[in-house]
Amino acid sequence: MTKIEYDHTHKCIVITPIEPPHDEDFELWSTLFLHSDDTTLNEYSAGADRHQVRFSYQQQTFNLNYEHYSQSIWINGEGTEADHLLAALTFYLS
Known about the structure:
There is one protein chain. This protein is α+β, with helices and mostly antiparallel strands. About 20% of the residues lie in helices and about 45% in strands. It contains three helices and six strands. It has helices spanning about 25-35, 80-85, 85-94; strands at about 5, 10-15, 40-45, 50-55, 60-65, 70-75. A six-stranded antiparallel beta sheet has the order 1-2-6-5-4-3. The protein is globular and about 30 Å long.
């Protein structure tokens, strides 16, 4: 089961899957993870060690990040209004 926790101090949602996705599978994994009527995927970008999916929830933009080397996955908001929705988004994704 994927563990989803809101980190109030760092203003992000930390996601800990049972098994992290492989680099080449992150786009598919993120599409499945964020699949719902209330989220809209906007953009996917891949780098050498980090991948990012920009998405919208309640008319605010967020980033789902994956860092390959540390196998860290987290969501952060783009702006103050998005930051205020992180707790609600955590509950929604759980």
